[in-house]
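ABC transporter permease subunit
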Amino acid sequence: MWTIYLKEILELARDRKTFVFTVLIPIFAMPLIFAAFGYFSSSMFDKARRAQLPYAVFGQEYAPELAQRFAREKGFREVRLGSEAEIRQAIDQDIIKFALVIPPGYQDRLDDRRQAEVALHYNSAVMVDLIRKRVQAVVEAQNAELRESALSALNLNQQQLRFALHPIRLDEHSTAGKREQMGALVGGMLPYLLLMGCLMAAMYPAIDLGAGEKERGTLETLLLAPVPRSSIVLAKFFVLFTVGLVSSLLMVGSMSALLFIAGSTPPGHPDPTGQTGLADMAAMMQSIGAGDLAMVALMLAPTAAMFAAILLSLSIYAKSYKEAAGLISPLMLLSLLPTMVALLPGVELNWMWAMVPLTNVSLAMKELVKGTMDYRMFAVILASTTISAGALLALCRWWFNREQVLFRN
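Tokens:
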């Protein structure tokens, strides 16, 4: 068995594609993509919050104070349009970002102590609705001024005025530390990156070890060797297990090193990127103990075994390299679903979710990063994942012993 294992490892090591998927992508590509996405998304959100918004306003003579407030506000620039009928076309052509239409009875309703309305026209077909939030902030400032003006006419003192405006005020005290706050953000994406990296690294070698050998005609030669089929299956399985696990561990190490380097700005010195997110993430990584990292590595082992058994089974079943690629590609989508379940609101690590494959690993990794892991569940997660991996390996071994599977062509 180990002779076959070493032979396959040596052949994969000589293959440039395997080297790229197993070493280069986990060490360099994925961490750099993760860091670049975080930096550019943060920069784009910051740019969108500060970007100048051209707008048009109709009926400003009915609400001069509101119109003047928008004119004074930084980040807003008024554009003159001929009529209200031009609003939609102007927004579609990006001449303006939004338009306000103030009705004639606006001031009369306010004077009668009734609620007035202002129509907001804008394109809401965006992922993050920053335009409405920025407009709402200006309108809310005008609302606060009108409330104070209306209540001051009642000759209320400062205490009474605060009570009338905000009878109950929440004094927030978060019990979450910096690690828990940052871990809630990072912990959701970390399992996805690690598990998908493990699957992608073992995907190409799996196709080659099964369907590839069928096409080359070397599988028949291997079956004629005086080696039990179980040993052949285990040798190929351990090759895929090694590739997937090593790839995930390399990704953990490279991403940790990247965060340490990015967050190594000395105290008192500004972050050269102008952001504090990377420094906070580095501080969070530094607070994660060696025991937690060891637990992440231990959970990756049975997960890599699950992927290795499934990939090898599909590759052995396929008639050709092309068919194996077609069978294995949907596996990424199927593996993505239980990983994404861990991101849903209300899904927390408990004894029930600790028994669900992949979802339990994703939830446990998130809790480990946050520092809120219930270590009593670790053994349950490890045991359930290991049992699932063992069952899949047994299925793969049975699958390999079937002549109608090995020689479908």
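The CA atoms of residues 54 and 357 lie 51 Å apart.
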